[in-house]
Amino acid sequence: MFTLLHRGREIPGVDYSGPHPIAAIELTEQKGLRYLATIVNCPNQDISIGMPVRLTWLDRAGVPSPAFVPILNTLNPG
Amino acid sequence: MSKRNPMGDKVAIVGVGATAYGRRLDRSRLSLGLEAAKKAIRDAGLAKEDIDGIAGTGSGMFAVGEANFLALQEGLGIREITWCLNAEMTQGILHAAHAVFSGACETAVVVHAETRSPVLSASAQTEPLRVRAMEFQGAGVRPFGDYAQGWIHSGEPYAALAGRYLHEFGVPREVLGLIAINNRSNAVMNENAVLRTPITMDDYLSARMVRDPFGILDMDLPVDCGEAIVITTEERAQALPKKPVYIHAATFGEANRGTEYYENVGDYRAMSPWVAMAALWGKSDLTLDDIDIFFPYDGYTINAICFTEAAGYCQAGEAWDFFRENWDETSNRLKIGGKTLVTTNGGSLSHGRSSGFNYYTESVLQLRGEAGARQLAGCRATLIASGSLYHDPSVAILRTD
User: Fold this and answer.
1) In principle, which of A4, B90, B118, B393 could form an S-S bond with A19, CB 3.0–4.6 Å?
2) Three-class SS of residue B39?
3) In a domain, A51, yes or no
4) Residue A77 lies in a domain
5) Beta-carbon neighbour count of residue B286 at 10 Å?
6) 3-state secondary structure of B194
7) Cis ω on the peptide bond leading into residue B213 (within 30° of 0)?
8) Residue A31's domain spans which residues?
């Protein structure tokens, strides 16, 4: 599940004008284990429930912050 | 799940009191709570000497900055009490009923006060007095969640869950909109409601988006308000001037959602309303056909959807069809089975946020026949389904003879 935040609490490096996506990411390695993070390199209108993603890291005001990027279908045909 | 209900119809609500609801009353929670408490005690035809139990608002014994029981007792000038508690949302009402039934006290006043807090209201974040007041309010009532990622209770998890509901069941946002419209249509008839301008589905869909799929009309309205209820035994209630309103059945209900970031749960059917409603029906010989007014919690529109389905009006995911089949075009609101109304005071979305307390006040007025312009003729039983999807469900059936 995910939401698009048009406003929210002030967090360094977070811009709500996008709006800012935040999603519950379920790990393929462990069903039921989820992590909350933003989605990057993906237009908001293309974010969908069940979309495969992989971990990446953002630099938020000097602090590393986990984020997830979509896995291209060509890499994940299944 | 216990089906025992020895308390059924043995405890009654005999007094209700509420302050004005407003965005900027600029009064303390204690001031609002005291006004409501005095009104409720007088409404019951009682004096302060008759009160021997107090439930206040907040978490913890001292509940700093809240209308807590210590401050209420002093403010009301009640010398001695034998039962006390501070509680969140509407749970204090059921705790007080248990206390009266057990003999911990004879007559309890339950008080709930809120102010438009910066926790809930963006505009309040610019008001120094409200920011300062929030800093002093009790520990344990802060919103929680994953601050680093911006997933903060309350708001973000409810929006995501609503989005998942729409996705899973393949229904449009309009299902949420029908709750917003229903509650606003009812608020038009409530002179104490803060939002009384009728809205259409176009208004709902074009309202400012805040947390997709939630727009501004999906979220309750933070206000300054106070509410209070007086509860006593069946015997005492029958000797008082107002018609007693009996607590026919009532229960809490919590679902196990895990411990770490528990709001990171996408399973709609794992939410607390399903537990609470199943437990409630286990204690009651009434059915949905007996309910004249239904109050599903409307802190967010998705809560009302979930409580409607958990109550058994329809199956999970069927609210979109159910609402349309039971929509009264003339009054632009729900009329279930052609008779049952929903949230006749406008609820948290339009009357104003009191964490569900105003469902009780409205129920009592309707069951006594004192609801004025919005009175439902022949109202005999109401179903109150209050509480978050994640915490504090407290559900009850109230009835009169």
Assistant:
1) A4
2) helix
3) yes
4) no
5) 17
6) coil
7) yes
8) 2-70
pLDDT at B142: 53
Tell me, yes or no, whether A10 lies in a domain.
Answer: yes
Distance CA B265, CA B91 (A): 23
* Cβ-based contacts of A34 with chain B (< 8 Å): 264, 266
Tell me which range, A53-62, B125-134, B240-249, is most confidently predicted by mean pLDDT: B240-249
Q: Taking a C-beta distance cutoff of 8 angstroms, is the pair B153, B144 a contact?
A: yes
Cis peptide before B154 (omega within 30 of 0): yes
C-alpha dihedral sign at B55, B60, B64, B66: negative
For residues B314-324, give the mean pLDDT. 98
pLDDT band at B390 (very low <50, low <70, confident <90, very high): confident
Residue indicated by tokens 């929006």: B159
Q: Model-level pTM greater than 0.80? A: yes
Residue of B167, B208, B211 lying closest to A3 (CB–CB) = B211
A17 within a domain of the structure (yes/no):
yes
What confidence tens digit (pLDDT) does each residue in B226-237 have?
Answer: 999 999 999 999
Tens digit of each residue's pLDDT (9 = 90 or more) over B198-226 = 999 999 999 999 999 999 999 999 999 99
| Tally of structural domains, chain A | 1
pLDDT at A10 over 90: no
Q: Distance (Å) from the C-alpha of residue B160 to the closest C-alpha of chain A?
A: 5
Interchain pair B211, A6: CB under 8 A: yes
Phi, psi of B253 (to 5 degrees): 180, 120
